[in-house]
Design goal:
Radius of gyration: 19 Å
Largest sheet: 5 strands, parallel
Order of helices and strands: HEHEHEHEHEHEEHEHHEHH
Mean pLDDT: 92
Strand content: 5-15%
Number of strands: 9
Distance between the termini: 16 Å
CATH superfamily of the largest domain: Aspartate/ornithine carbamoyltransferase
Low-confidence stretches: none
Number of domains: 2
Helix content: 25-40%
Strand order of the largest sheet: 7-6-5-8-9
CATH architecture of the largest domain: 3-Layer(aba) Sandwich
Length: about 300
């Protein structure tokens, strides 16, 4: 990698805390790493002296694998930590757990935790770089970055583009990070879903609010569709998933009625037949698999830029 501008912050704890220039720098760096991961030898020695701990207190498939692959593509030493098989289950505090890991000369921590604010808490108390891989219903910054990067690949600059976020906005960390990111890139954002799943004051973030999926699809250039997060719902917000699918689910017949090309996205995992039918998720308008591919390049870029600050 050549000489580049430096990332403005030591950590990536949320899109709220980075600048538009930081986002553009990540995208430029990801362009270079995307070339790396598409060549026969997919590894570079960029982080061969860096040790990274992946500390996940919640289940994850895509994010964890994507980060681990990004770390190994950069030749970093990788430690995977699972809370269920650790001393946390014996009552050890989060800070003691992280400090014990860092005492083994770990340089960077990628953390996912069910409590909002944990990455900020750690960033203020430890010397290592902290990367937020999802904290409660707060933020998921690398998902928002890979979503925006995937949109730019297809639509060009996002200034003035109309992007819809559809589904369970209330419980989604992806929605909040996407709103922050898209706003910083100049896009127009509309959220859509049942009234019970839209936060009361979300319009204060500079987004439009709708409860009509088909009119929202007619409005937008791209739709990021979110799943119903039943695991975060302490009370029922819907009569049933079947009723949600009937009124808010997106299928190929609906897309055909719109009669305009729009991009379909999803951060995964997809609940097929609920928020998206299979014929919509697997259609030519879907860029879901491109999102997954771009996730590795984006996370390589973030890791590289944060390591460079050291």
């Amino acid at each position: 990698m050549g000489e580049q501008a430096q990332f403005s912050t030591k950590h990536l704890i949320g899109i709220k805390y980075v600048t538009t220039k930081d986002i553009e720098l990540i995208f430029h760096t990801a362009d270079e790493f995307k070339e790396v991961i598409n060549r026969p030898i997919k590894r570079v020695p960029t982080l061969r002296d860096v040790t990274i701990a992946n500390i996940f207190f919640e289940n994850s498939t895509r994010t964890r694998i994507s980060f681990e692959l990004a770390e190994k593509r950069l030749s970093a030493d990788v430690i995977n930590f699972s809370a269920s098989s650790s001393s946390v289950s014996k009552g050890e505090t989060l800070l003691d757990t992280v400090n014990n890991i860092l005492s083994m000369k770990v340089d960077m921590v990628v953390i996912r935790h069910p409590a909002a604010g944990v990455p900020v808490y750690l960033a203020n108390r430890v010397s290592a770089n902290i990367i937020n891989a999802g904290d409660g219903t707060h933020e998921h910054p690398t998902q928002a970055l890979l979503d925006a990067y995937s949109l730019i690949e297809k639509l060009g600059p996002l200034s003035g583009k109309k992007i819809a976020i559809i589904g369970d906005i209330l419980h989604s960390r992806v929605a909040l990070s996407n709103i922050f990111c898209l706003n910083k890139l100049g896009a127009r954002v509309r959220v859509c879903g049942p009234p019970t799943l839209i936060p009361k004051h979300i319009a204060s973030l500079g987004v439009e609010v709708s409860h009509d999926v088909e009119s929202t699809l007619r409005w937008c250039d791209a739709a990021n569709v979110l799943r119903i997060q039943l695991e975060r719902q302490e009370i029922p917000y819907l009569p049933s998933l079947r009723e949600y699918a009937q009124y808010y689910g997106i299928n190929a017949a609906m897309l055909d009625r719109i009669d305009k090309p729009i991009l379909l996205m999803h951060p995964g995992p997809i609940n097929r037949g609920v928020e998206l039918s299979s014929d919509a998720a697997d259609s030519k308008q879907s860029i879901i698999l491109q999102q997954v591919e771009n996730g590795v390049a984006i996370r390589m870029a973030v890791l590289y830029l944060l390591a460079n600050r050291n």
